[in-house]
Amino acid sequence: STPEQWNDIDLYFKTKLHTSDPVLDSILKANTEAGLPAIDVAPNQGKLLYLLAKLAGANNILELGTLGGYSSIWLGRALPEGGRLVTLELDEHHAKVAEENIRKAGLENKVEVIVGPALDTLPTLKEKGFTAFDFIFIDADKPNYPHYLKWALNYSRSGTVIIADNVVRKGRVIDPEDASVQGIRQFVDLLSEDTRIDSTAVQTVGSKGYDGFILGIVK
Ligand code: SAM
After folding, report:
1. Does the structural domain 3-218 have CATH classification 3.10.20.340?
2. How far is the CA of 50 from the centre of ligand 1 (A)?
3. Distance (Å) of CA 146 to CA 110, 149, 191
4. Annotated domain spans of the chain
5. Candidate of 88, 141, 144, 145 to mutate for ligand 1, largest count of ligand atoms within 8 Å of Cβ
6. ipTM of this model?
7. pLDDT digits (tens, 9 = 90+) for 196-205
8. Which among 40, 47, 80, 149 could disulfide-bond with 19, CB atoms 3.0 to 4.6 Å apart, if both were Cys?
9. CA–CA gap between residue 199 and residue 217 (Å, rounded)
10. Sheet of 60-64: strands edge to edge?
């Protein structure tokens, strides 16, 4: 199979399984117009996040790496009445675009964007009354993934779902010489040694190329 086929098949399922709609399409368009890189999750993966958050019955969701809020909107849609999602973003411009998109999606009462380096804003979530999240999506800068795993476990309870995106990196993850995957490999080493979490990795191909994600559940 070829990347063209992966793309066509993503498109086929996107149409058949309704993994997009005019609101989501307009958000991707707004992101492009605002100059944001197209590194959001693919529509089929956004819907997977939504389904997983529903399966988990998530009331409180934490996201690391907002970009334009595309995945935040998918996850926000999975929340029941009164549910909350906090999403952490370094870049002020990204956060501004995301807030506008979240408003367009009608989720401004459920979703809060917090601006700053996640390692600085994570400790402040306690002051906001968060002790444990039901669902955590890690999708920010890859070198900090090992730190993000520690924070995610800090903000977990038994049953918390933790997802980390972009862990395959076109297959580079098993190349120990590749500096760009060191954060991911350290993240995997921590998971490997940590007895508090059960996890697996799923490789994916599609409109965003060859990559994969890790899914874990805190014991
Ligand atoms: N989750 C988004 C989606 O699927 O629509 C995509 C997120 S994008 C892959 C990664 C984001 O993490 C970028 O917007 C980037 O600015 C942000 N980021 C990078 N370093 C960060 C940090 N130290 N703290 C918080 N966010 C960071």
Report:
1. no
2. 18
3. 28, 5, 9
4. 3-218
5. 141
6. 0.99
7. 999 999 999 9
8. 47
9. 6
10. 111-115, 84-89, 60-64, 135-138, 161-165, 209-218, 197-206
